[in-house]
From TrEMBL:
UniProt-recorded name of the protein: WSC domain-containing protein
Localization annotation: Membrane
Organism: Recurvomyces mirabilis
Gene Ontology cellular component annotations, sorted alphabetically: plasma membrane
Highest taxon of source: Eukaryota
Amino acid sequence: MTMSLLSLLHHITVLFAFITHVRSVAPTGQQTPLCRDRLQLTMADEYRDGDAAQSSYFDNHNIDPAVVDSAQFGLLWKQSFNNKEQFYAKPLTFTPNGGKQLVFLASSMNYIRTLDAVTGTLINSRQVQTPFLQSDIGCTDIPNYIGIIGSRSLIQSSGNTGTFNGVYYFYAVHVSDLSDVDGFPILVDGSIAQNDNRKYFVGGTILQRPSLLQVGSTVFAAFGGHCDLFNYTGTVLGVDIKQKKVVTNFAVEAGPNSAFSTDWTNNGAGGQGGIWQAGMSLASDGNRLFFATGNGNGGENQGIPASGSSGCRTLGEAVVNLAIDTTTGVLSLTDYFQPYDYVNMDGGDQDFGSGGVSLLDPTIFNGTGVARLCITTGKNGALYLINADNLGGYKQGTGGTDLVVQEIVTSEAVFGGVGSYPLEGGYIYSTPVGYPTYVYKLGFTASGKPNFVLAGTTAQKSAGRVGPGVPTITTYKGRPGTAIMWLTDPDAGIRAWYAVPNPDQAMTPIKLPQIGGVVKFQRPAFGDGRVYTTDANGALYCLGSPVNLPLNCTSPVDFGSVVLGSSKTATIQCTALTTISQVNSITTGDLHFVVDQSALPTGAVAQGASFAFNVTWNLVNVTVSAAKNASYGNTTPGVKSTPLTIRTTNAVAGFANSFPLSLTGTEVSKAAFLQVVPQTANFGGLILGVAGNPTTSSLSFTIANLGQSDLHILGYAYTSDTDRDDGDADFTNVTNTAGVWDLGKGFSTTALPALDSVLKAGQSALIPTLFNATNATGDYLSYLNVWSDGGTAGIILEGSTSTAAVVVITTSTSEGGLSPCSVTDCTMSFGTQSPGQTAALSIQVCNVGGSVLTVTKSKPPLGAIKALNYGIDLHETQQIPVNSCANGTVVFSPAPGPPNLADYTVVNQWTLNTDDLSFGVHVVNMTGIVHGRQIGPLYPNGSAIFNYLGCYLDNGAGQRLLGNEPYVDTVNNTNQECQTACQKAGYTFSGTEYRQECYCGDNLPSSQWYHPESDTKCTFACIGDDTQACGGDGGYISVYYDSSKYSITDQTYNTSGTIVSGPQTVLSVPPYNYLGCYSEGQDQRALSGSAPGAASTGGTVDYCASQCAQSQFQYMGVEYSNECVSF
């Protein structure tokens, strides 16, 4: 049951997809689609979800910020598809050999499509399989249909409904026409875990959310759970596309200490440890595979430190490094990191698994003892910077804590990964749910170890619910000064900012065309100067600049290094792509860049003609100072960029009237120049009084000299006076006692540069700072100033302490009261409702503790009993302030159904957890009774004598199911009229069809012709009452039975005699008796004799027995719904 779709190989056009399918109706020979057309990828193609390392940096798509941040960048086209069709798999772009760029799209309905990347014209479309229905699974994370969910992925589909009918196929298709490649698809269900032979792949219980990853000839797929339902185990599968078979199956939870059960309905009994990563792909640097896992059930690590090479087999709540045998594709555990407090993370549903692993560019992000960094984050809000070559094991750090390069602690949950930008010093980007995007810049400790400090924050916040995407960074041809940070959002659609923060830590936004909110965890895809994304309504958008630009000019223009106090001139060459009547004006975004207007053409410019003009970057009169408002421009040394726009009047219609390009360069200060970053260091809140919780918090800031002369430190002082701008603030000099500098109440460091010390040109000092709760609960604040001969700068240090959050949960009752909930007893009863009626109750979650409470897990119901404001009320990451409550409204609205149904009970549930570790997972069990309309002859108590039996195909066997027709009423026919007539004539069964016909009989209709209501076959309105069904098109009849003469039994709807509620074990089918349920062997089949082909109508135990008995086999067995084997 899952889907991630799509992978294009470098030299062959190949689409890979895993498809979940119901085995009992699988066409013979169907396997996974694969494409094998020759493909010459261009630099502007994006044939997978991000880069292989998941660094989220792209330098090859011709995305120029001067164009994006101009009036010429807009919506080029929009395409919509089927109702309720959504796109969780991101669009991919590629260019077939000798052709034009295409967009590949895959949907939750299992449709795959190719479109013209420039025009949006649909080229090919195919539905690979019928998708699973969300209602079959019971998990509401993905609504309506569960088909292709992840980019480069597995596909989920269904024939027969029901969770355990689901299996996975690995597909490969030709991208040229979307047809299957020979030898595909491949069935992957039943493959045994190589590291625990008790566990094997059961497709119906798991979800493939992460995108696929290809290394060599092996394609890897990772699997997690459906809302932690069922007996699932986190799994990585590998399929060799040359051998066309599964070559590796690695179980995240394995060994004797892992949970195990053969009861697939037992939630969590497989050990969990799901890999989902909010859709982010597995990461690889060639021969290693990295991923993060979610909550686990049980663990080998129970307090005793263990190295990453210790071979831990229970890898829930972990970052995992698997070695890839590049010859065979087989995976083996090399290293892992499991936080020292992972048990608490499990209890509070604060799993790693909501964020993937990013491998950073090792040429930039390295330092003493660290050749390659990786980053992960998750629901607990911490950013873990880890040595990719030594992940850290368990409790290997000082005092039994974590052995990580750096931990950036926040209280802000992240669903998705971290983006990175390796130029201009190196930056990383993180977007917590409901918060701004935070930008951290690479720095180094005194020993040279990498250490990041906060450098910028967007003014715009992400949606306050799960779904913001992964920050993704592009540059124009890899040039500094051209970086854009892109982000999708479930409310705001798509956003963009210049990726490098301003000196005041602000992020400059780029205005983009408004689109609808996107589905959760999307991120944009890039083509040749174009950007693609989909919204929550299933529309695909293409943003870009018109291809009919009037000019082709030098871009970007790089001025190189320019010293503050001097100037430099560059020449820009332009060629007209159409006849231009007049060059009207040239403007720049920064007035320090001055255009020589005298050289511009004064008249028309013919097509093909060229002209040139000069631009001077004038920094002569710029004040060299770090003080605020030193001049109107940005005077901080470093890389700068600005757009230049040429406006024209064109002689030919259809061309844009402006042309944007980029100006870049590096400002250099010969004098010393002081910089302190960030402006604010927020240490967050410390929770006191909870065993195991830290009582201190650490952050770092940087004191740097951006100038080319020595900088002398003159002094440090701090104040808590908030009115510092009036000049009356009382500062206290920073003092050093026994090597510890006092930075104000609660804040200290051991690493301040000494007074009168010197920072050389370009040198910086990283200042690790400790926040210690010195007093009772409350807020802590210190304004620290640094004085130097290169200017004055400061930083705000802030933090808080409080007691833990405490949650109380109650449910409302139909009498208007509140009922308290516990882990073992939490119910909600709607009583009895009729179709058309609606009853509403609510769940109330209150915080009676001392700090903010966060909802860490929320799986609201859908269906007849559903959350009124699905995804809004009590959503994951929702924060509840102290002494406040949040409510989730639940409504019970029975759907209309046939009259005379016996009362039946509807059940559903809402699963909740919070970061109150004493709370635990609460499941609110909800019930409601549906009482349908009663018509026809009645018992004295008002209930109907004739009950609804169902919808049947009449005359399917060559004769009517009910052979007697008491009347034909072409004006007033209803079911009650027919029932009354049949009762009067003494018949047991009545039925109506073709709106006006009535039939009676005494023989039970054969279940061979029965159709469940979900098939919607009986839809003809009775001619006398359009609220009732009287049969359906094609000869379907609505049948009722006299309950005083007949009662439904096990045989009513199933001629084999099994119970209607689900599959049952057949204990005897002559000449065979049931022996038990056995696992297949690892090297050979348990029954290696004949394997009779499946019956055309689908396999049964009786059919298999008849085939095996004919050949006098002693043993027979059935598996995978449709297979028969013997020995």
